[in-house]
Amino acid sequence: MDPAIALQSIGFLTDFRESAMVYPIVMATHLTCIALFGGMILLTDLRLLGVALTSTPVSDVVNGLRWWKRIGFVIMVGCGLMLACSEAVKYAPNPFFWAKMGLLFLVGVHAVAFKPEVYDHPEKLDSGLTSKAKVAAWCSLIIWISLPIMGRLIAYYEPKDKNLQPAQAQVQVLTPEIARK
Amino acid sequence: MLVGSPIGDAMKNIGDAMNNTEWAFPLAECFHIAAFAFAIGTIAVVDLRLLGLGITRQSAAQLLKDTHKWTLWGLVVVLFAGVPIYISQPEIYNVNSAFWFKMYCILAAIVFHYAVLRPVVRAGPSPMVAKLIAIVSLLLWTGTVFGGLFIAFV
What we know:
The complex is a heterodimer.
Chain A lengths: L2 H6 L2 H8 L3 H27 L9 H29 L1 H4 L3 H25 L11 H23 L12 H9 L1 H5 L1
Helix pairs in contact in A: 2-4, 3-4, 3-7, 6-7
Chain B lengths: L5 H15 L3 H27 L9 H29 L1 H5 L2 H27 L3 H24 L4
Protein backbone atom coordinates (compact mmCIF):
# COMPACT_ATOMS: atom_id res chain seq x y z
CA MET A 1 0.00 0.00 0.00
CA ASP A 2 1.12 3.52 -0.78
CA PRO A 3 2.50 5.02 2.45
CA ALA A 4 0.59 8.26 1.80
CA ILE A 5 -2.70 6.35 1.67
CA ALA A 6 -1.78 4.34 4.75
CA LEU A 7 -0.94 7.53 6.61
CA GLN A 8 -4.10 9.44 5.86
CA SER A 9 -6.25 6.35 6.44
CA ILE A 10 -5.28 6.26 10.13
CA GLY A 11 -8.58 6.49 11.98
CA PHE A 12 -8.29 9.86 13.66
CA LEU A 13 -6.77 11.48 10.56
CA THR A 14 -9.70 10.32 8.46
CA ASP A 15 -12.15 11.68 11.04
CA PHE A 16 -10.16 14.90 11.16
CA ARG A 17 -10.14 15.37 7.38
CA GLU A 18 -13.87 14.77 7.12
CA SER A 19 -14.81 16.97 10.07
CA ALA A 20 -16.72 20.05 8.96
CA MET A 21 -15.47 22.15 11.88
CA VAL A 22 -12.24 20.69 13.29
CA TYR A 23 -10.33 20.73 10.00
CA PRO A 24 -10.92 24.46 9.27
CA ILE A 25 -10.36 25.35 12.94
CA VAL A 26 -6.95 23.67 12.89
CA MET A 27 -6.14 25.40 9.60
CA ALA A 28 -7.26 28.77 11.05
CA THR A 29 -5.09 28.13 14.13
CA HIS A 30 -2.14 27.40 11.81
CA LEU A 31 -2.81 30.74 10.07
CA THR A 32 -3.24 32.64 13.35
CA CYS A 33 0.15 31.32 14.51
CA ILE A 34 1.65 32.73 11.31
CA ALA A 35 0.14 36.10 12.19
CA LEU A 36 1.06 36.19 15.89
CA PHE A 37 4.33 34.28 16.10
CA GLY A 38 5.52 34.52 12.48
CA GLY A 39 5.21 38.27 12.94
CA MET A 40 7.42 38.05 16.04
CA ILE A 41 10.09 36.23 14.02
CA LEU A 42 9.98 38.96 11.37
CA LEU A 43 10.17 41.66 14.06
CA THR A 44 13.21 39.97 15.67
CA ASP A 45 14.87 39.89 12.24
CA LEU A 46 14.16 43.58 11.72
CA ARG A 47 15.68 44.31 15.14
CA LEU A 48 18.82 42.35 14.23
CA LEU A 49 19.02 44.42 11.05
CA GLY A 50 18.74 47.57 13.13
CA VAL A 51 15.61 48.89 11.42
CA ALA A 52 12.83 48.22 13.98
CA LEU A 53 12.53 48.52 17.78
CA THR A 54 15.89 50.31 17.79
CA SER A 55 15.29 51.91 21.21
CA THR A 56 14.99 48.42 22.77
CA PRO A 57 18.26 46.48 23.30
CA VAL A 58 18.67 43.43 21.03
CA SER A 59 18.93 41.14 24.05
CA ASP A 60 15.55 42.33 25.41
CA VAL A 61 13.88 41.59 22.05
CA VAL A 62 15.53 38.18 21.54
CA ASN A 63 15.12 37.04 25.17
CA GLY A 64 11.61 38.49 25.55
CA LEU A 65 10.22 36.78 22.47
CA ARG A 66 12.24 33.53 22.52
CA TRP A 67 9.69 31.37 24.35
CA TRP A 68 6.70 32.86 22.55
CA LYS A 69 8.25 32.02 19.21
CA ARG A 70 9.05 28.48 20.41
CA ILE A 71 5.50 27.91 21.66
CA GLY A 72 4.09 29.38 18.44
CA PHE A 73 6.40 27.21 16.35
CA VAL A 74 5.25 24.03 18.11
CA ILE A 75 1.53 24.88 17.67
CA MET A 76 2.09 25.97 14.06
CA VAL A 77 4.02 22.81 13.11
CA GLY A 78 1.61 20.60 15.10
CA CYS A 79 -1.40 21.97 13.22
CA GLY A 80 0.51 21.84 9.93
CA LEU A 81 1.47 18.19 10.47
CA MET A 82 -2.16 17.23 11.11
CA LEU A 83 -3.28 19.06 7.96
CA ALA A 84 -0.55 17.50 5.80
CA CYS A 85 -0.84 13.95 7.17
CA SER A 86 -4.62 13.88 6.84
CA GLU A 87 -4.30 14.85 3.16
CA ALA A 88 -1.09 12.87 2.54
CA VAL A 89 -2.24 11.55 -0.85
CA LYS A 90 -2.84 15.09 -2.12
CA TYR A 91 0.33 16.50 -0.57
CA ALA A 92 2.77 13.74 -1.55
CA PRO A 93 3.03 14.75 -5.25
CA ASN A 94 2.76 18.50 -4.53
CA PRO A 95 6.03 20.35 -5.32
CA PHE A 96 5.02 23.39 -3.23
CA PHE A 97 4.54 21.14 -0.20
CA TRP A 98 8.04 19.71 -0.64
CA ALA A 99 9.46 23.20 -1.18
CA LYS A 100 7.88 24.13 2.14
CA MET A 101 9.41 21.06 3.81
CA GLY A 102 12.78 22.07 2.33
CA LEU A 103 12.38 25.53 3.85
CA LEU A 104 11.51 23.96 7.22
CA PHE A 105 14.74 21.98 6.96
CA LEU A 106 16.54 25.28 6.32
CA VAL A 107 14.99 26.61 9.54
CA GLY A 108 16.94 23.85 11.29
CA VAL A 109 20.12 24.63 9.35
CA HIS A 110 19.67 28.31 10.23
CA ALA A 111 19.38 27.45 13.93
CA VAL A 112 22.53 25.29 13.85
CA ALA A 113 24.44 27.98 11.94
CA PHE A 114 23.43 31.04 13.93
CA LYS A 115 22.08 29.99 17.33
CA PRO A 116 25.43 29.66 19.17
CA GLU A 117 26.81 33.02 18.10
CA VAL A 118 23.71 35.17 17.58
CA TYR A 119 20.58 33.99 19.37
CA ASP A 120 22.21 32.40 22.44
CA HIS A 121 24.24 35.51 23.26
CA PRO A 122 22.12 38.47 22.18
CA GLU A 123 23.61 40.67 24.93
CA LYS A 124 26.84 40.76 22.90
CA LEU A 125 24.85 42.55 20.19
CA ASP A 126 23.61 45.30 22.51
CA SER A 127 26.80 47.27 21.95
CA GLY A 128 26.65 46.87 18.17
CA LEU A 129 25.18 44.59 15.51
CA THR A 130 27.65 42.18 13.93
CA SER A 131 27.60 41.25 10.27
CA LYS A 132 26.91 37.66 11.30
CA ALA A 133 23.75 38.82 13.09
CA LYS A 134 22.63 40.67 9.97
CA VAL A 135 23.27 37.63 7.77
CA ALA A 136 21.24 35.56 10.25
CA ALA A 137 18.40 38.08 10.06
CA TRP A 138 18.39 38.21 6.25
CA CYS A 139 18.40 34.41 5.97
CA SER A 140 15.58 34.18 8.51
CA LEU A 141 13.53 36.85 6.71
CA ILE A 142 13.88 35.07 3.36
CA ILE A 143 13.06 31.65 4.84
CA TRP A 144 10.10 32.86 6.91
CA ILE A 145 8.51 34.92 4.15
CA SER A 146 8.94 32.04 1.68
CA LEU A 147 7.39 29.47 4.07
CA PRO A 148 3.81 30.81 4.18
CA ILE A 149 4.01 31.65 0.45
CA MET A 150 4.83 28.01 -0.37
CA GLY A 151 2.08 27.00 2.05
CA ARG A 152 -0.46 29.08 0.18
CA LEU A 153 0.71 27.86 -3.22
CA ILE A 154 0.09 24.23 -2.15
CA ALA A 155 -3.57 24.91 -2.89
CA TYR A 156 -2.82 25.87 -6.50
CA TYR A 157 -1.08 22.71 -7.65
CA GLU A 158 -3.12 20.36 -9.76
CA PRO A 159 -1.69 17.05 -10.94
CA LYS A 160 -1.73 16.88 -14.75
CA ASP A 161 -3.58 13.58 -15.15
CA LYS A 162 -5.95 13.85 -12.26
CA ASN A 163 -8.04 10.83 -13.13
CA LEU A 164 -5.14 8.61 -14.15
CA GLN A 165 -3.30 8.83 -10.85
CA PRO A 166 -3.52 5.49 -9.04
CA ALA A 167 -3.33 7.21 -5.65
CA GLN A 168 -6.38 9.32 -6.48
CA ALA A 169 -8.32 6.29 -7.68
CA GLN A 170 -7.59 4.32 -4.53
CA VAL A 171 -8.44 7.12 -2.17
CA GLN A 172 -11.97 7.20 -3.55
CA VAL A 173 -12.48 3.73 -2.15
CA LEU A 174 -10.94 4.64 1.16
CA THR A 175 -12.83 7.81 1.99
CA PRO A 176 -16.60 7.59 2.04
CA GLU A 177 -16.91 11.38 1.83
CA ILE A 178 -15.35 11.44 -1.63
CA ALA A 179 -17.24 8.32 -2.67
CA ARG A 180 -20.52 10.02 -1.85
CA LYS A 181 -19.67 12.86 -4.21
CA MET B 1 -24.58 51.27 -8.57
CA LEU B 2 -21.02 51.93 -9.59
CA VAL B 3 -21.40 50.76 -13.18
CA GLY B 4 -20.19 53.42 -15.60
CA SER B 5 -18.51 55.52 -12.92
CA PRO B 6 -14.70 55.80 -12.87
CA ILE B 7 -14.62 53.70 -9.69
CA GLY B 8 -16.84 51.07 -11.28
CA ASP B 9 -14.60 50.94 -14.35
CA ALA B 10 -11.47 50.65 -12.23
CA MET B 11 -13.05 47.84 -10.20
CA LYS B 12 -14.01 46.00 -13.36
CA ASN B 13 -10.49 46.36 -14.77
CA ILE B 14 -8.89 45.11 -11.56
CA GLY B 15 -11.38 42.25 -11.35
CA ASP B 16 -10.69 41.25 -14.96
CA ALA B 17 -6.94 41.38 -14.39
CA MET B 18 -7.30 39.20 -11.27
CA ASN B 19 -9.43 36.64 -13.07
CA ASN B 20 -7.58 36.54 -16.38
CA THR B 21 -4.02 36.36 -15.08
CA GLU B 22 -3.18 32.96 -13.68
CA TRP B 23 -0.71 34.19 -11.05
CA ALA B 24 -2.47 37.41 -9.98
CA PHE B 25 -4.79 35.86 -7.40
CA PRO B 26 -2.17 33.70 -5.60
CA LEU B 27 0.30 36.62 -5.73
CA ALA B 28 -2.23 38.90 -4.02
CA GLU B 29 -2.86 36.20 -1.40
CA CYS B 30 0.89 35.85 -0.70
CA PHE B 31 1.23 39.60 -0.15
CA HIS B 32 -1.91 39.51 2.01
CA ILE B 33 -0.47 36.77 4.26
CA ALA B 34 3.09 38.14 4.54
CA ALA B 35 1.69 41.60 5.32
CA PHE B 36 -0.74 40.43 8.00
CA ALA B 37 2.14 38.63 9.70
CA PHE B 38 3.94 42.00 9.93
CA ALA B 39 0.83 43.90 11.02
CA ILE B 40 -0.61 41.45 13.54
CA GLY B 41 2.79 40.23 14.80
CA THR B 42 3.86 43.76 15.71
CA ILE B 43 0.48 44.41 17.38
CA ALA B 44 0.78 41.10 19.28
CA VAL B 45 4.14 42.17 20.76
CA VAL B 46 2.47 45.30 22.17
CA ASP B 47 -0.54 43.28 23.39
CA LEU B 48 1.75 40.78 25.14
CA ARG B 49 3.56 43.64 26.86
CA LEU B 50 0.21 45.02 28.05
CA LEU B 51 -0.43 41.58 29.57
CA GLY B 52 2.97 41.77 31.28
CA LEU B 53 4.54 39.22 28.91
CA GLY B 54 7.09 39.16 26.09
CA ILE B 55 9.48 42.12 25.92
CA THR B 56 8.84 43.26 29.50
CA ARG B 57 11.97 45.38 29.90
CA GLN B 58 10.54 48.02 27.59
CA SER B 59 7.34 50.03 28.17
CA ALA B 60 4.26 49.28 26.10
CA ALA B 61 4.13 52.91 24.97
CA GLN B 62 7.71 52.70 23.67
CA LEU B 63 7.08 49.36 21.93
CA LEU B 64 3.99 50.85 20.32
CA LYS B 65 5.95 53.88 19.16
CA ASP B 66 8.74 51.72 17.72
CA THR B 67 6.49 49.24 15.92
CA HIS B 68 3.73 51.56 14.67
CA LYS B 69 5.41 52.22 11.31
CA TRP B 70 5.65 48.48 10.59
CA THR B 71 2.10 47.85 11.78
CA LEU B 72 0.78 50.61 9.54
CA TRP B 73 2.69 49.47 6.45
CA GLY B 74 1.60 45.92 7.10
CA LEU B 75 -2.04 47.02 7.26
CA VAL B 76 -1.70 49.12 4.10
CA VAL B 77 -0.29 46.17 2.13
CA VAL B 78 -2.94 43.84 3.64
CA LEU B 79 -5.69 46.14 2.35
CA PHE B 80 -4.05 46.76 -1.04
CA ALA B 81 -3.71 43.00 -1.55
CA GLY B 82 -7.10 42.17 -0.06
CA VAL B 83 -9.26 44.57 -2.06
CA PRO B 84 -8.34 43.06 -5.48
CA ILE B 85 -9.09 39.60 -4.05
CA TYR B 86 -12.58 40.82 -3.14
CA ILE B 87 -13.08 42.61 -6.48
CA SER B 88 -12.21 39.46 -8.41
CA GLN B 89 -15.47 37.81 -7.27
CA PRO B 90 -17.58 40.27 -5.22
CA GLU B 91 -20.78 38.31 -5.72
CA ILE B 92 -19.16 35.24 -4.09
CA TYR B 93 -17.91 37.20 -1.08
CA ASN B 94 -21.10 39.26 -0.65
CA VAL B 95 -23.13 36.18 0.23
CA ASN B 96 -20.41 34.60 2.41
CA SER B 97 -21.14 34.89 6.14
CA ALA B 98 -17.48 34.30 7.12
CA PHE B 99 -16.46 37.17 4.83
CA TRP B 100 -18.81 39.56 6.63
CA PHE B 101 -17.65 38.27 10.01
CA LYS B 102 -14.09 39.05 8.87
CA MET B 103 -15.06 42.52 7.63
CA TYR B 104 -16.74 43.44 10.93
CA CYS B 105 -13.77 42.03 12.86
CA ILE B 106 -11.15 43.89 10.85
CA LEU B 107 -13.12 47.14 10.95
CA ALA B 108 -13.55 46.80 14.73
CA ALA B 109 -9.88 45.78 15.10
CA ILE B 110 -8.55 48.78 13.17
CA VAL B 111 -10.89 51.27 14.87
CA PHE B 112 -10.07 49.77 18.27
CA HIS B 113 -6.33 49.88 17.59
CA TYR B 114 -6.21 53.51 16.49
CA ALA B 115 -9.10 55.04 18.47
CA VAL B 116 -8.76 53.15 21.76
CA LEU B 117 -5.56 51.13 22.18
CA ARG B 118 -3.06 53.73 20.96
CA PRO B 119 -4.35 56.72 22.97
CA VAL B 120 -4.88 54.59 26.09
CA VAL B 121 -1.41 53.02 25.92
CA ARG B 122 0.23 56.40 25.39
CA ALA B 123 -1.63 57.76 28.42
CA GLY B 124 -0.28 54.91 30.57
CA PRO B 125 -3.21 52.68 31.57
CA SER B 126 -3.68 50.84 34.87
CA PRO B 127 -2.67 47.14 34.74
CA MET B 128 -6.33 46.08 34.64
CA VAL B 129 -7.20 48.36 31.71
CA ALA B 130 -3.97 47.37 29.94
CA LYS B 131 -4.85 43.67 30.18
CA LEU B 132 -8.43 44.29 29.05
CA ILE B 133 -7.48 46.19 25.90
CA ALA B 134 -4.77 43.64 25.09
CA ILE B 135 -7.30 40.80 25.24
CA VAL B 136 -9.85 42.70 23.13
CA SER B 137 -7.14 43.50 20.57
CA LEU B 138 -5.92 39.88 20.37
CA LEU B 139 -9.49 38.57 20.06
CA LEU B 140 -10.38 41.00 17.25
CA TRP B 141 -7.25 40.24 15.21
CA THR B 142 -7.54 36.49 15.78
CA GLY B 143 -11.20 36.72 14.78
CA THR B 144 -10.18 38.46 11.57
CA VAL B 145 -7.76 35.67 10.64
CA PHE B 146 -10.29 32.96 11.54
CA GLY B 147 -12.99 34.72 9.51
CA GLY B 148 -10.65 34.93 6.54
CA LEU B 149 -9.85 31.23 6.64
CA PHE B 150 -13.49 30.21 7.08
CA ILE B 151 -14.47 32.06 3.88
CA ALA B 152 -13.31 28.93 2.06
CA PHE B 153 -15.31 26.60 4.32
CA VAL B 154 -18.82 28.07 4.65
